């Protein structure tokens, strides 16, 4: 019975969120079990381009460190905001969501050539948080029950939290920069005088991922959204 309940809940998670979070958890489990080591996963341009270890372009986004507070914190935020994006502004647009992953990952990898980062998964999570926060500007956030602010400030609050923990803020700045570039090209520039849509999802992705949507206008209520954790919990103004 417990297995069936878990399986049912698992299959209700949107496909992109389910695939990415599962890959992250399985990668971490493989490292914990010493089936693989982080040295086989990290981002190393020399090994990628000279030794053709191209899997590193993907695996560096899948490992968030050993199981502990930092891993759980990142997994909660990754799952929560990836799912809210997929069930919110990307509902019925799986191909566009996959394209955002590809665009963000490519841009982050290019930036990664110039900064000393070996794993980019945390920066990718910040990118997802940034895009969600800009698309939900009127949602009020409650961070650990200590701070109340509106959603667009969330990435900067997380950066401050990283600073308090003694972590490098380069990771956060990279995620914010890539998230802002995507948000500007997708949401801002097309609505400017003389602007236009520069990011277009390839038709091959649409053919693979998009399926007819029963209710394209569906927008989940705040209480129906994933999570239930106090970290970054939002509430709409006037709701």
Automatic annotation (TrEMBL):
Signal peptide: none annotated. SUPFAM superfamilies: Rhomboid-like (SSF144091). It comes from the Eukaryota. It is a multi-pass membrane protein. InterPro entries: DER1, Rhomboid-like_sf. It is found in: Endoplasmic reticulum membrane. One of its GO terms (cellular component) is endoplasmic reticulum membrane. The chain crosses the membrane at residues 54-79, 99-132, 139-158, 164-185. Keywords: Endoplasmic reticulum, Membrane, Transmembrane, Transmembrane helix. The keyword Translocase does not apply. The keyword Metal-binding does not apply. Residues 229-239 have a biased composition (Gly residues). GO terms for biological process: ERAD pathway. Residues 211-239 are annotated as: Disordered. Pfam families: DER1. Functional component of endoplasmic reticulum-associated degradation (ERAD) for misfolded lumenal proteins. May act by forming a channel that allows the retrotranslocation of misfolded proteins into the cytosol where they are ubiquitinated and degraded by the proteasome. Belongs to the derlin family. This is Derlin.
